[in-house]
């Protein structure tokens, strides 16, 4: 190693050191502000792989990720069925809200205690979507079935703590929904099944109709605080870049045409949520709907990776990074040496590090729910 090399490594060492200090400082701030947060009674999550902690382990589907290298950076390196190397944003949220749990477990885990059910679980299933056809392609848990599971969960709580306490508990719980990407990317763009029956605008409206139906279902079960996440920039997903770039290996950047479809959908979604909220305001006390932006935080990381310590934004860490996800990212895949430098873990899903930044971006919403 020459002198310039050792200077260079000294410099990067100091940089790493400074970064570590900053991270610790940040972690302290987060921990401190969460200390008195006990105003959420429980946290219930619905949707797709972005929030599935391993429900698919318990069903017959090829959409699984309960094998290495998934979970490589999860506590104890367990491949839990989360489609990432580390934790999901919803795990960070659960731990932040002072519910006394470090991660959010999958509802289908047969060993959950009543305490775990009360403080929160995820009903989400990787590969699912708002379009009822989407989970039939992937053979996973439809979103309406996830609502049925929530009703079952409610009955289990009622048996233990009674009907009234369960109702009060649900009123003070936070609900979180994240889906839509599989409907567009898998169902509409890649396969393309629904493209034959719907124009893009009609499909967006069709999906939003289903989002509203699902929210309605939660409201009927007593939910009063519901967060609905938007969709990410589709054109930046490594798989979409791979499938749609003329020169996939040399020129990899986001496809603006696909990302603008995500933006349009998010706009439409926010508009509909706003209209729904106006109606809900007539109820006393009014249930609250919140929109969580995923697009902005991810696009931010992709546009200014250095600011977040990333240096690879257009391919995943697992395998070639161009096409692998789920069973294609497996024990025999190459894995990049430092996933924390990658925005994407596989060709579709963010790394734990990227999920952490998405969580940080959602904090204002989480805080306003806690303080409401
Ligand atoms: C559930 O608990 C039983 C008994 O403690 C154990 O044998 C089993 O492996 C557990 N199952 C899961 C999915 O953790
Ligand atoms: C988006 O642009 C890419 C690359 O120019 C093209 O291959 C693809 O067909 C376009 N897709 C849509 C939906 O416009």
TrEMBL record:
Q: Which organism is it from?
A: Lupinus luteus (European yellow lupine)
Recorded coiled-coil stretches: none
Q: Per its UniProt record, what InterPro entries does this chain match?
A: GDSL (IPR001087), GDSL_lipolytic_enzyme (IPR050592), SGNH_hydro_sf (IPR036514), SGNH_plant_lipase-like (IPR035669)
Supply the alphabetized keyword list.
Signal
One Pfam match, given by its short name, reads Lipase_GDSL
Q: What is this protein called?
A: Uncharacterized protein
Please name the GO terms that the record assigns under molecular function.
hydrolase activity, acting on ester bonds
Q: Which family does it belong to?
A: Belongs to the 'GDSL' lipolytic enzyme family.
Keyword Signal tagged: yes
- Which residues are the signal sequence here? 1-31
Q: Which domain of life is it from?
A: Eukaryota
